[in-house]
Amino acid sequence: MEIKLTQSNYNGEVLKSNIPVLVDFWAAWCGPCQMLAPTVERLANEYEGKIKVGKVKIDEEGELAAQNAIVSIPTVILFVNGKPVEKLVGAHSIDDYEDIIDKYI
Q1: What are the pLDDT tens digits along the chain (105 aa)?
Q2: Rounded distance, CA 59 to CA 29, Å?
Q3: Catalytic annotation present for 29
Q4: Whole-model pTM?
Q5: For the chain, first and last CA: distance in Å?
Q6: Is residue 93 flagged as an active site residue?
Q7: What span, in angstroms and rounded, lies between the C-alpha atoms of 87 and 77?
Q8: Contact, 48 vs 1, CB < 8 A?
Q9: Which residues does 83 contact at the CB level (< 8 Å), separation at least 6?
């Protein structure tokens, strides 16, 4: 299950999470973001209980995008113990995301 991340729940869901969190920074108008959405959803289902998967809609949560130095979307960041440990910019294959997740679970 994907979590809609906002300024109000980001701290608890991502920074204070006791399991890794994969965060997808995206926008509705972004074609590559739309192409990546099914992959992110699949990862959420595949790793349920092992990681959290959250989505930040940058048009609504510009402050979160700025805090994470998002300059291009889609950007996917894996957080472990509240710290960003991996970052993939652009749409990648599901294997690329699985590889970074598998290193930390």
Answers
A1: 899 999 999 999 999 999 999 999 999 999 999 999 999 999 999 999 999 999 999 999 999 999 999 999 999 999 999 999 999 999 999 999 999 999 999
A2: 10
A3: no
A4: 0.97
A5: 17
A6: no
A7: 4
A8: yes
A9: none
Cα–chain center distance at 20: 10
Let me know if 19 is exposed, middle or buried by CB neighbors in 10 A (0-12, 13-18, 19+).
middle
CB-CB contact of 74 with 32 (8 Å):
yes
Amino acid at position 92, single letter: H
Please identify which residue in the block is written with the tokens 């965060």.
Answer: 23
Contact predicate 73/27, CB 8 Å: yes
- Which residue of the set 22, 33, 51, 70 is catalytic? 33
Catalytic residue among 27, 30, 80, 94: 30
